Amino acid sequence: MYNFEIEKPATIADAVKALGRDEAQPLSGGQTLIPTLKARLAAPSVLVSLHGIDEMKGVCLDDDGRLCIGGATIHSVVAKEAQAHYPALAGLAARIGDPAVRNRGTIGGSVANNDPSACYPAAVLASGATVVTNKREIAADDYFQGMFATALEEGEIVTEVKFPIPQSAHYEKHIQPASRFPLVAAFVAKYADGVRVAITGASEDGVFRWTEAEEMLSNSFAADGLKGLTVDGSGMISDLHGSGEYRAHLVGVMTRRAVAAMGG
Description:
29% of the residues lie in helices and 22% in strands. By secondary structure, the chain is α+β, with helices and mostly antiparallel strands. The protein folds into 3 domains: 5-49, Uridine Diphospho-n-acetylenolpyruvylglucosamine Reductase, domain 2 (2-Layer Sandwich); 57-163, Uridine Diphospho-n-acetylenolpyruvylglucosamine Reductase, domain 3, CATH 3.30.465.10; 168-261, Enolase-like, domain 1, CATH 3.30.390. It has a 5-stranded antiparallel beta sheet with strand order 4-5-8-6-7. A hairpin with a 5-residue loop joins strand 4 and strand 5 (67-70). The longest helix has 18 residues, at 244-261.
């Protein structure tokens, strides 16, 4: 590690002001950023902790019936407080990492970082959620823009995520045992106007919607209908844990299992 300053603002306004300093970077749960600093892959001069901002914490329903989760809400709280309204999302949060990660990592940090194997981006994209920042609201389809890339601008922080609650949903992931990240995972959400399917852990471009599966499931919601439907393995991540072709195969397997778990 190296020397840096740390700011601990108590409000969103103070956090935005602190982020205006030269080489300042937001710190949420720190589950990705701290290892990055230790490896000297990043060297901000100022870290702005979002952990103490109470207005960015909590889970509630808004007037439109959406499940609203503050950006600084830790995974273990989501796992508990989302259960009554969005069980699939609560189940996703309950299986992130280990207890240490779940009691420190936040939904806002996960969504802002957009790791290609993170769990939350799949839920956000499959739910057609809205990412709220200190400046604006961004639709999920416009927010994720590639591996570790988002629509966030300099000094912009994720303050809340708003989830439309589906008729039914399920998150199915094949866990990579060492990291607890999904090797491949599928989040399937069924709404009155159709089905959305988001895949994480597989693509070199990060989380993506599997539109061919969405079309098929919107016409006939059945796992058997997906048999024979495949994705191109050439754009998939290939590493010591699995080849691109293997990950492409798992995309179909995880999606069918998710649909089957939903009764399809």
